[in-house]
Design a protein that fits this description.
2 strands
């Protein structure tokens, strides 16, 4: 019985450490921000606190390079009338 409780306790501690590891949190944050923005994302440090949440330090976004300096689009008249940007 004691061995089972010890194994369960060790498993819980390892699981908490794995899920809140700073390297893992940083990689997850970079991936999430990349998917959200489409830009290359670099995070210097990430820290997880049970009651304080996640803190990111040194976040840098590098926009993807494009050949154009600007972009423009012309939505159709009916698109504007119904409040949509794309039709």
């Amino acid at each position: 019985m004691g061995v089972v409780v010890l194994a369960l306790l060790i498993g819980l501690v390892y699981g908490y450490w794995y899920l809140t590891n700073d390297r893992r949190i940083r990689a997850e944050a970079q991936q999430y921000l990349h998917e959200l923005t489409g830009a290359e994302v670099r995070v210097d440090r990430a820290r997880f606190s049970l009651f304080g949440g996640i803190r990111l330090h040194g976040v840098r976004l590098v926009a993807p390079a494009t050949r154009r300096r600007s972009r423009s689009f012309r939505p159709g008249r009916w698109c504007c009338a119904i409040g949509r940007w794309r039709c």
